[in-house]
Write a structure and sequence with these properties.
The chain has about 240 residues and is an alpha+beta fold. The longest helix has 12 residues, at about 25-35. Strands 1, 2, 3, 4, 7, 10, 11, 12, 13 and 14 form a ten-stranded mixed β-sheet that branches. The protein has a two-stranded antiparallel sheet with strand order 5-6. Strands 8-9 form a two-stranded antiparallel ribbon. The protein has seven helices and 14 strands. The protein has helices spanning about 25-35, 65-70, 105-115, 135-140, 180-190, 215-220, 225-230; strands at about 10-20, 40, 50-60, 75-80, 85, 95, 115-120, 130, 135, 150-165, 165-175, 195-205, 210, 215. It has two domains: about 10-70 and about 210-240, Pseudouridine synthase, CATH 3.30.2350; about 75-205, Pseudouridine synthase (2-Layer Sandwich), CATH 3.30.2350.10.
């Protein structure tokens, strides 16, 4: 009797629309089960609360991780004024509530101008950044404050797309490593009433668009050959020098 053929290992880039309440690792774990292979990673973490474009690297495409992580990102989201949380987003504990002044859209646009361009941003305590080998969020859960090194970022654009105080919707383009929730928090501090990130959705990573992404439900419904057809060959989008 002939031995069964080994399961074919796939290679390529799969664009996934990450659901809320899933970590990026949760998505990877589910795909490892679906594709029956371990060599799967991602190029750029999304917080559990955030949804949208997650670039999944399958097989040999994992070698392009550093290049793909370095690409600029685009987001849509919502900022809420008047409430400060310990995580700087809606998942955290409300630490402070302040009255919101009678802000106009012009007031917020003017304040946003100070966040455009090149700058240094201090990572939030509730993040996966490691200090002396320990993720910051572990120290934060113990109530510890750790000194963090500011990181260079660039905010290319930050536009208001909807305004209904105490909230406003926005579209943002920025470099890798930018904490959008920290931008929201810092904006609230600048205006004086505090703020947090109420919602976030990644819509693009340079040439990759959320429009081409599959939901986890759609992926689960596909056969392996159908998923293979949706994989983007890594050499078609990544310079050879980056592989």
């Amino acid at each position: 009797m002939l031995a069964p053929s080994p399961t074919k290992e796939l290679d390529g880039i799969l664009l996934v629309d990450k659901p809320t309440d899933h970590t990026s690792h949760d998505v990877v774990a589910r795909l490892r089960g679906k594709l029956k292979m371990k060599r799967i990673g991602h190029a750029g973490t999304l917080d559990p609360m955030a949804t949208g474009l997650l670039i999944i690297l399958v097989g040999k495409a994992t070698s392009a991780s550093q290049y793909l992580m370095s690409l600029d990102k685009e987001y849509e989201g919502t900022v809420e004024f008047g409430k400060v949380t310990n995580t700087q987003d809606a998942e955290g504990e409300i630490m402070e509530t302040r009255p919101v002044p009678p802000l106009t859209e012009a007031d917020v646009r003017a304040a946003i101008q100070g966040f455009l361009g090149d700058q240094y941003q201090t990572p939030p305590m509730f993040s996966a950044v490691k200090i002396d080998g320990v993720p910051l969020y572990k120290s934060a859960r113990k109530g510890e404050e750790v000194e963090r090194e500011p990181r260079f970022i660039r905010v290319a654009s930050w536009d208001i797309t909807g305004f209904a105080p105490p909230r406003f919707d926005f579209r943002l383009r920025c470099t890798k490593g930018t904490y959008v929730r920290t931008l929201a928090h810092d904006l609230g501090q600048k205006i004086g009433c505090g703020a947090h990130l109420a919602g976030l959705r990644r819509t693009a990573t340079e040439k990759f668009s959320l429009r081409d992404a599959l939901t986890m439900e759609q992926i689960q419904a596909l056969s392996l050959p159908e998923i293979e057809q949706r994989l983007i060959p890594v050499r078609s989008v990544v310079p050879t020098v980056a592989l």
